[in-house]
Each structure stands twice: as C-alpha cells, then as structure tokens.
Amino acid sequence: MLLEGGFAVEQMLRIDMGSQAARFEPLPDCYRYLGGRALTSAIVSAEVDPTCDALSPGNKLVLAPGLLSGTVVSSSSRISAGAKSPLTGGIKEANAGGNTGWRLAQHGLRAVIIEGQATAGDWLIAVIGGGECRLEPAGDLIGLGTYAAASRLRERFGEKAALALIGPAGEQLMQVAGIANTDPEGRPARLCARGGLGAVMGSKGLKAVVVLDPGPNVAPALVDPALWRSETRVYVRALRDSPAIDRYRKLGTATTLEFVNKLGGLPIRNFSRGQDPATEAITGLHMAEVIKARGGLNSHSCMTGCVIQCSNVWADREGREVTSSMEFETNTLLGANLEIYDFDVIARFTEACNDLGVDTIETGGAIGVAMQGGVLRFGDVDGVLDIFAQMRSGGILGKLIGAGAAMVGRVLGVREVPCVKGQTMAAYDPRVIKGNGVTYATSPMGADHTAGQTIGAKTDHLDPAGKVALSREAQIMAAALDSLGFCAFAGKIYEQVAENIRAMYEARFGEPISAAQVRQLALDTIKAEVAFNRAAGLGPATDRIPEWMRTTPLAPHGAVFDIREEELDRIWETD
Amino acid sequence: MGDGLSIHLEVYLRFRGQAPWRGDERLPEGTTAADLPRVLGISEPGLAILVNGRNVPESAILRAGDEVAVLRQAEGGD
C-alpha cells in the first residue's frame, strides 16, 4: 500500500480479469465522501450499461467498505458488494459482516472494481497486500466448497488474511450464489448473499479475493484522532449498555420467529400460512437453550471488534460445531417455509448453503416453490439434502433451484411465487407485515428486508395506513447505514448515537456532516439506483407485490396486501 | 373495579418456571397493554405486547377473552 504520514493513501483498485491486470487508481474527488452502498451504486451507475447481460464482461463487481470502516470500532466495517444483478435485472448491493471490509479499508482501498472476464475455464484469485495486487491461478480451489477453499487459502496466506470467495454455486453461475466473507475465526459464513452477486464473481473467473493482514495498528488516516477516540468510546459504550442490543447478544436474531409467528406473518409452507403451532420447535427461545446446553455459542462476533455479537455457533448433540450462524431468516426459509421444524436439520442445511456459497433466503424460497410444484413433498429432509448435493455436482435439479424461486415457478407452473423483481421475500409475509411489503415492492434492491426493515416499529402491521412512509424512512436509514459501513443492529440505537457517528465522520475526514446531509446521501443513493433500474427496463410495474398476494388471503388474519399502487409509485416523490 | 377479567396469555420468556408459559390469567379491570408486564412482574425492557395477533397502542385496555402474547421485540438482520 502507498503510505503517507504513516497512513495508507486512499485509492481504488481496478482488476481487469480479461487482461489479468490490476492497477491502483487515485480516489476521484466525486467518490471521496462515498462509501459502502453509496459507492458501489455510484460506480455501477457510472460504469455499467444498465441493459448489459449481468453475466457478461460488461458488468462490474464492486467491493467497497463503508465510509467509516477500517478500525475495530464495533460493527462499523461491513463490506458492500455491488453490480447489476443477474437475479433481479437491476442494480444490487449486498453487504455482510466478516473481516473483508475492515482489511480492505486498512489497505486504504475504498473500492475494488472487478471488470472484464477471464478466458473461459481460467480461474484466478486476487491477492491484495504489500502495495500490490497479484492475480494467481486458482488451481485446485476450483470445485471446492467455501470451507475447504478458505482453509487452504488461510494455510497459504495466513490466518489473519480476510477472504471474499465463492463456492460451487458461484462457479456454476447460479443466481442464488452469494459472496462469502470470513469471520474472525476464518469461517466463510458471512455472505453478501442476495441478488446473485456470487454468479457475477464467478462469471469473471474469480474464485477469491485474499486481503492480507497489513500488520498491527494499521488504520485509515484520521484528521482528528483524539476526536475519533472520544466519540468511538461513547458509541461503543452505548452499544454495550443498550438493553435493545443486549437482546441480540444473548439471543441473536432467532427470537424474531415467535414474534412474527404470533403476528401471523411467518412464511410457512411456501408462504401459504402465517402462523403454525409447529413452529414452537424452532423458536429463538428454544434455540438459545439448546445452544447453551450443548456448549455452542449464543454470543459470537462476526467481525473483529463487534460488541453486539448477534452471531452464534450451533453444536450437535456431542458438542461439535456444525455451523455459524443460525438466524431467523434462515430458520424460517429453510425451516418453516419447508415445513421442517428441527434445528439440527436446519443447521445441516445452513452449513450446506454456506459451503455452496448461496443465499439461504433465495434457496429456501426456491425449494419451497419446488415443493409446491410437487418436485418433492413438504418436510422432505432427504429431498432437500439431495438438492444440495445436486447443486454441488451440477445436477439438473440443483441447477433449477440455483436459478432462484421465480425461475422454479415458471418451470413448474407454480403461480404462488413469493418474489419481487425475481427475488424471494425474506421471512415476513407482506400481507401482514405491510411496511416490509412496501420495501419489497419499492426498493431498487427487490424483495430484500435489509433495504428497509419495519418489523420493529410500534405499529399495527396489518393496517395499511402509514406504511409507505414507514418503509420510506426505513429504506433511507438502511441506505445510510449501508453507506457508512454500520450494521443494521447498530442502527437500533442510531438516534442515541447519531451525533457521535457524525463526529466520527468529522474526525475521519475533517469535514462536518449534518443529519440532513446523511439523509441526502442515502436518498441520492436510492434515487440513483431507481434510475439505473428504470434504464435497465425495470419500470413501475415491477414495483409490485405479486398479484396472488393481493388476492389470496393469508391465515390466520385473512390478510391480503392492500396498499394502493399509486401510493407505492409516489414513495420517492417527496424530498 | 369489578372482579377483573380473564385473558388467555402466552409469555415467550422464562416465566413462572416455564418457557414459554401459557394459560388463562385474571387481570384487574382496566389493565392496559403497557401495564401488563408490571402486573405480571416482568421487568425485562423492550417487550412486544400483541393482542389477538396485533400490535396495539400502549394505552389499549385489555378485554375479557383477549389472546395476549408477551414477546421479545426482535428482528432479523443483514
């Protein structure tokens, strides 16, 4: 890395997979105050033809840490991956924990732009460190699952290297493929999961990005280190002391299941019911007790320095680690949605998905539609394991599921497909959790709860009134956090620490930033993404919850999605 | 105040030695959603009180026959 005054000079790295050349570029002024999602979407908007084939050389995959990433300050170094999505046909940003964002920012890299395509059959890895980026043959890593590949890379490049890599699904250009990032212990279990960005990485011929340990105490330049220290201290103390955060530290996200089940909006049997007593077997309350009894971990940091520790480690009956992490979305989409109510089975599914390098939401959605279509019966554990085996081997059923739920519905003639813009909804049925329904419909990201989560609002989720405004504010908050580099759970106390975070920005860049400017950064990002989608051919007619969810009532409330289209179309008109 | 009212209660916490706890519960007339944790002796903050499967305003008065669930407010992450 280039050093100036002991700090890494901030740059971008451009990797041309066609010519197998990598070059460092000065950070353009227009990107100086952009990070994470704001930066990936700005670069994709500027450099990618919206009408291109997402798996062609013309698409670009951009990796960008957040604006304030690069230190071990808790929950502040998420990695954003952005590109045109092969799944939605629109722009996509998917972000994750793990240590990739931290390491890239330590090297002064605000963005890594991966463009072009290697010659068919050539697979490479990119090794970043020591002021250079080397492209090397991927060799015997090809065909390996993410765990085996990560293990070999860590043996070769050291346990402190951060990895972003794809599994067999990404190699096969499956649209359920994500990009796996390693956690502090080296598990490739933190995925930039959504939108098929692993397939984009695979289309480039890139198996892994290795970001070497730059050595101790390396961090991005700070204009005012004393201010940074004092403000981050307040911020971290607030995270440690918050009862709302403490819950995630003790129980992770899994207790959301009983909450959404009681609300009547839990996806069960391919989104055909919203509540079922059988879910009692997979509540978060139960999960925490089993993890504790077996000697797993109920608290685990997915990235170095995180004090929220919402991740966990599931162990089998003998106390041996099976997977990390058991999350609400996964427990629902690979559990209740398939009528499988057994944590040990869901843990095996989770491990298989992590090793394949796939999005558990899209994969669970696709299998649910396949069950609806009669390919296998609901509750068929062995059938699901066979699907995963076929995804690994390239069997036709594996290829079908790997194409995502919308494609499965088209092939099998199933109308009940829980997708917007071709992407599976997360574990909140929009007929009941209507704010999330607005997010699914109107976010340029497609049906992605992380783009605007409303389940935490003290509101009657069944009542359509006010849900467009609720989703809009949630989407703006999500875009802000995704751009600054912070985890959504840090956002749980955002109002409390907003001034500290803005002061951290000032300490980092020497420029103040107002609350209005943070909001504008988020809004500008979303509007640029909407513009990309429109140019890609995704008009307002794609900003819709599917018709069957607007007409088929969901038990137990008999709810349909009933927010007027005109309201959805006007969501970005104000401001 | 009359003889109180009876609701069906589900508590998704460790409560009275069980997790979850379920049963019929008698409450004083006029008990609101916001009152309920205190009436039950639950001190954990950040709880959701669902009445007949819906979030209700904190001031909502519970009625005889209501199905009430006390849960931890939580959400899936990213």
Q: What is the overall pLDDT average of chain B? A: 94
Radius of gyration of chain A: 22 Å
Name the overall outline of chain B: globular
Largest sheet of chain A: 6 strands, mixed
Euclidean distance between termini CA atoms of chain B = 48 Å
Number of strands of chain B: 5
The spatial strand order of the largest sheet of chain B comes to 2-1-5-3-4
Summarize the structure.
Chain A is of the alpha+beta class and 575 residues long.
Plain-language structure description:
The complex is a heterodimer of chains A (575) and B (78). Chain A has 575 residues and is of the alpha+beta class. In chain A, helix 1 packs parallel to helix 19, helix 12 packs parallel to helix 15 and helix 13 packs across helix 14. The model of chain A has no long low-confidence stretch (mean pLDDT 97). In chain B, 6% of the residues lie in helices and 35% in strands. Chain B has a five-stranded mixed β-sheet. In chain B, strand 3 and strand 4 form a beta hairpin. Chain B is built from one helix and five strands; from the N terminus they run E-E-H-E-E-E. Classes of the chains: A alpha+beta (575), B mainly beta (78). At the A-B interface, helix 7, helix 8 and helix 9 of A face strand 4 and strand 5 of B.
Feature tags:
heterodimer; A: 575 residues; alpha+beta; six-stranded mixed sheet; 21 helices; 39% helix; 15% strand; B: 78 residues; mainly beta; five-stranded mixed sheet; 1 helix; 5 strands; 35% strand; globular
List the helices and strands and how they pair.
The complex is a heterodimer of chains A (575) and B (78).
Chain A: E1 3-4, E2 7-8, E3 11-16, E4 21-26, H1 36-47, E5 61-65, E6 79-84, E7 91-96, H2 100-106, E8 109-115, E9 124-129, E10 132-137, H3 146-157, E11 162-165, H4 168-171, E12 179-181, E13 190-192, H5 197-204, E14 206-211, H6 225-241, H7 243-251, H8 256-263, H9 284-294, E15 297-300, E16 311-315, E17 321-323, H10 328-333, H11 343-356, H12 360-372, H13 381-393, H14 396-402, H15 405-412, E18 419-420, E19 423-424, H16 434-442, H17 467-484, H18 494-509, H19 515-535, H20 547-551, H21 565-569
Parallel strand pairs in A: 3-8, 9-14
Antiparallel strand pairs in A: 1-2, 3-4, 5-6, 5-8, 6-7, 9-10, 11-12, 11-14, 12-13, 15-16, 16-17, 18-19
Chain B: E1 5-11, E2 21-27, H1 36-40, E3 47-51, E4 54-55, E5 67-72
